[in-house]
Fold:
Amino acid sequence: MSILNTTADIFKLMRQLKREIYVNDLIANLNMPKSTASRILNQLVDAGFLEKEPDKHAFKIGQLMFEVTHSIGYQVPLAEQILPLLNQVCQLTHHTGYISLLSEQDVLVLNAIAGSHPLRVVTEPGTRSSAIDTSTGRAILARMSDEEIKDWFFTFYATNKDAQQLYTQLMQRITNVRKNRYSFAINETIPGAASVSCAIFDIKTNKYLAFCLTFPVAQDSDEQIKTLSQHLKKVAKTIGAKVGDTYWIDHE
Structure:
């Protein structure tokens, strides 16, 4: 097998696992000897395709791959406008912030801003999570029409035996997101974590980006969620005015 095919198999496995990858993952899933798996992963690190996390002995998507992939999608300019404002909110609230986009049935983390409040799990850029189970995913979906959501949902969940029930539950939550103009999640994708999200639409690229604040569930309260949503909606209005998102321009 060529190194190119092996590299492709490794990235496909990362997409399947939806997390960073370990030497043992290659041994178990790609039938590689330990020495070969370790050598190839380190070669990908040297090439800039992966980055190694020494404390965890794990490998994640490298900055080179990340920047090339998403600059092609013209998402970086919008993310760069959101980043400084979201960073200010993170400093003010001490919470961790993320910027994500919709990618097939998942949301894909583009940027992460570490907060000073400790979280059990910090999601790295390049991480995928189910869109219907995250506040960022539902924030983006709520910006789409009902027909667009239905087409998207059944493209990926048609074979799920509980598809209709999941769809009904999703649309109920989407109704609340549209009413409040923000989405929240508590103890969903990441146990012990809660998040609040808003989404921006860029008319130049016809794409959505969601950004959120994540915090420990122990700090969750209606007042906390309301306060954080106000911070995020202020960011959304500022960016919305710059990119022509009338959803936020017309919102008082």
Observations:
- The mean pLDDT is 88.
- Residues 12 and 128 are 13 Å apart (CA to CA).
- The two ends are 59 Å apart (CA to CA).
- The chain has two domains: 3-65, 73-249.
